[in-house]
Amino acid sequence: MPDAGFLTAAEAVLRTNDLGDCTRPSPRLYPHQWNWDSAFAAIGWAYLDWPRAVREVDALLAGQWVTGMLPQIRYRPGVEGYSPGPEWWPHPRVRHPGERTSGMSQPPVLPSAVYTVGLLQPDESVRRAWWARVYEPVRDALLYFSRHRTAGGSPLVAVIHPWESGLDNSPRWDFAVRKGFRPERSYTRADTAVVDAAGRPRRADYDLYFYLVERIAAFPVEGADAVAAAPFAVYDALFNAIWYRAAVDLNRIARLIGREPAVADAELRTFRDAYHATLWNEAAGLFRDYDLSGGAQIPADTCAGLGAIWGGLVDARRADAMLDRYEKRCAGCRMLPSALPDEPGFDPARYWRGPAWVNINWMVARGLEALGLRERATVLAAETLALVRAGGFFEFFHAQTGAPLGGPDFTWSAALAIDLVRRPVSFIGRDTPA
Ligand code: 2M8
User: Does residue 432 carry a pLDDT above 80?
Assistant: First the structure.
């Protein structure tokens, strides 16, 4: 498909999912507003209709909690067909009464998205005024994690539900599924009525998900003691890399609007040191996740280990070597499989256990670009666009055949494809405002 037709098709996906102020991830599968999906959506909207990108961010912030937490899901009133619905979260501590949300968060992509969306506004005064308006709530959302989700003196942020990681059924979380937790109440799944169950998490995964929902709804996991005692508490390598990149991007905004840095340089250095000391695995040549209850790294290699490239937590040499090694281990795969085929638990067609995802590719490609690894970034961006051009704007793609899988008309697949076409990776430097 030539670019014009491709961009028109991508725009049609965003318009299909446009609910006025927010964009649902996919028509029937995900009918509410999701946190990192909306951040990616805002980047796509910024090319089509800049004020609409601003509305996307405002809608996401409308669900913010008094603690600063930005929820994983902001429920749309009266919309059914997703489980768990708002009835599983009876006491959302929202800033704006009447908002219904879930009680956990998701990877903090928003600050980086706000930075990018701002840069796509050509009028500097409009850009700066918008950044100044959203700066504080966006900063609160990021700092929520340092204030409430750390333990044992480490600055790394603990994720307390697989859904918070965004990579729900990643083989990294199998150790927790194996513990056999089950919720007290029975639950009904809605997802497998909409898409093929072979591409979704299994029943045992969902038992863990609902068990944790019940727990978190009853006792929020906030503060060092609660984090340390939580049934699921991990330092996710991708989530923490996204946090770091978000802090750096927020500091860039702060500088451009004349505010103090959101996170001081010394704190960033401490965070970076802890990230390397806790999560680097020399034998794998990759970062791994860390289980707080087991007090050890989780022995599973996945795309999350490449998150440091997006985060800017590694230099070009290290990034090059990490990717080289990753690619060698997935011969015969379409890039980037979300889990490695030589690992137990790999499944080329099941959600976050193998298939390639546009958002992961996009983050790694943009990270490579920022490190000056333009050739690698260009190859990955081209592979990503090739998957979408051939298969359509689906949720994910079979790790080996590239066949489109999961939900159709998927928002972030379209939004980030627009970004890759409109701002090719080779144009590094163009995003730096004068
Ligand atoms: C998936 O997660 C939701 C729960 O949050 C689900 O399976 O119902 C994940 O892929 C997540 O990363 C994504 O944000 C969400 C909506 O696209 O779907």
Answer: no
Q: Band of the pLDDT at 434, cuts 50, 70, 90?
A: very low
| pTM for this model (two decimals) | 0.97
The finding on whether 394 has its CB within 6 A of some atom of ligand 1 is no
Judge if the beta carbon of residue 168 lies within 6 A of ligand 1.
Answer: yes
**Can you give the pLDDT at residue 433?**
39
Establish whether 260 is a catalytic residue: no
The answer to whether residue 426 scores a pLDDT higher than 80 is no
pLDDT > 50? residue 181: yes
Quote the distance between the C-alpha of residue 48 and its chain's center.
22
Answer for the pair 61, 21: CB distance below 8 angstroms, yes or no: no
- Nearest ligand 1 atom, CA 209: 4
Q: What confidence score (pLDDT) does residue 4 get?
A: 87
Instruction: Examine residue 336 and say whether the peptide bond preceding it is cis (omega within 30 degrees of 0).
Output: yes
